[in-house]
Fold this protein.
Amino acid sequence: GAMRSRAEVDATLQTAKLNPAELLPAVHCLSFGPQAGAGDLIGVHPEIEVKMHLYFCVIFFSSLVIRGEKDEQAVLCSKDKTYDMKIADTSNMLLFIPGCKTPEQLNADQASCNIIHSQIAGFSNNYWELRRCRPKLKKLRKLLMEDPYEGPDSRKDQTFSRYTTEDLLSLIQASEEEILHQLQVLDACKIEGYWRILEFDYEMKLLNHVTQLIDSESWSLNKVPLRACLEELGSLEPTEMIEHILLSYGRKYIDDGEVYFEMHEDKICRAIAQMLLQNAVKFNLSEFQEVWQQSVPEGMTTRLDQLKGLALLDKSSRPETIFLLKVEDLPENNQERFNSLFSIREKWTEADIAPYIQDLCAEKQTVGALLTKYARSSMQNGVKVYNSRRPIS
């Protein structure tokens, strides 16, 4: 339309019953530019904390990436956090005006003419809403398990898919830091530039070499010398595998210029339990406990709480039994996770179910809050138990 004059602006203000004295002198007169349209532009309206985090990411030129394959819901990742993206509609139309000045800028710019003609380049009725979410890391283990590393002598077909750090960044819906942290949690190691997970039997073979050596040399479990391990075991296995197993099952430290490892008792006991339980569907609990204690290195003590998220006790059967149930084999989606747990067992105590849902808790969420949402509680012999809110087929 035609450019407005100051008189027309003042007349409009009067009609709107606005007192010009209460307003800044500068007035924006908006008109639509020739190409202005909706659809190609979309705003971002995250929560405040999220906004600040992303704002700093952009300011410091750190990359923001959208990740997801065709069948996945897109997520936005900064270097160390992951956000769900949802399109939300707004009744207030968002206008995009290039070179638009804020009141603060106008105040600083007193000399500026007090009628500013701005062209609207585009508008939008929706925006991306960003919510901090759990990184979707289940797929990482799944990809690496396609081709676990069975050791240098394995004659396995070499046509399998292998993944570099770059590959994983493009396939996993999580930030780089979250992915690298998870690789550490999974005890993955880089072999010839590719991330691999050791095949469980091969891992146990390596662990066994180390624990037998500790035993025969009568070393203290919290002071295992790296150099001697590599010298003694180097003829049996590649030295980088020996070092990897020490890093997976111990804490590295340096004393007087020498590298030592303090072995993680709980982790070693847990791995040996997994090895024993893998060969049976159910195990008589007291027999299992006996065999397990006999199977761990001298000086280590087995305790059932080392098996959280790995094995489940059935106290209702006579005699009591124990069986393998690994949290990492359960679905990543909350509802599916609960469905699969309730199909394994109808009623759970909070203590039993906690290790199997702990990883689903959002930032400040508790296991109790999660149970309230996905399960209903009742009392059974004076104990609070949880069962499914919906029938499990």
Summary: DSSP finds 14 helices and 17 strands in the chain. The chain has four domains: 6-132, 137-197, 200-263, 330-392. The first helix runs from residue 6 to 15.
